[in-house]
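Protocol step 4 of 6: structure prediction from sequence.
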Amino acid sequence: MNLISNIWNHPRTSAAGLLIAAVTVAGVLSQQGITLGSAGTGTVVSLITALATAFLGLLAKDPDPGTTSNNTPKLGALMLCAVLVGGTMPLAGCSGTKVAQDIVNWTPALQTAVSVVDSTASLLAPADAPVFQAATVSFDAATNLLVAQCKAYLANPSAALLAQLQSQIVTFQQQVNAALLQSARILNPNSQTHALAAINGVATIVNAIFALIESVSTKASAAQMAARVNIKLSQVQPYLDENQAAQIVADHYSEPVFLARLQIAHAQSFAIRSGF
């Protein structure tokens, strides 16, 4: 009865869950080459995905002016386009310009997360602070370069600028992954907790931007990106804070945390299968 009551009391969230499930299943079918037949010039699977994504966009609209409800979920349809299917099929509403804007929208949060990293050394034990600083010293320069490239790409979503973004996001992600592994070796439990929490904030946003960039990349370009990866996502997964990541994504897209968890889990799964 609680299940039925929850569905009745939260119809938008329940509908969103069903639509996301449809997109997720359709993505898996597409990756396996299952089409379920043709529909016009496309396939039944692509049609299901497009319709589900379109309805998600409708559910994600802002509340009507004058309403006081805070329960309307903004579902982050652009993020869904990027991470639920990982760029394996064209989805309604996932244009390069919209994705570019979504990438740029993440950059203030990235700058804030890096500033937290910069101030974290003072919270660590004296012996641990130099290790942490050495592991994260590249974050400021990487952030400044990525932010500049993101803004340039938004102004002109060209193939040349996308190639720069692809290169920089892989470089930055590798720097973050290396920092996670190095900080995990800190023996002082309090220092390790502070270090990993700070780096996780950056990792979440870098991975979100990575998923968006990958969503507008060709398979050949994605393969080239994967070839440059030395530290795989599977190696750092034990040090990623799923709760922290879900909260960051949920806050950014003004969506329920459970939807953010689903997005992150699917993005990680797809990234690992793609060689990252």
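Step 5 (inspection) to follow. Residues 2-273 form one domain.
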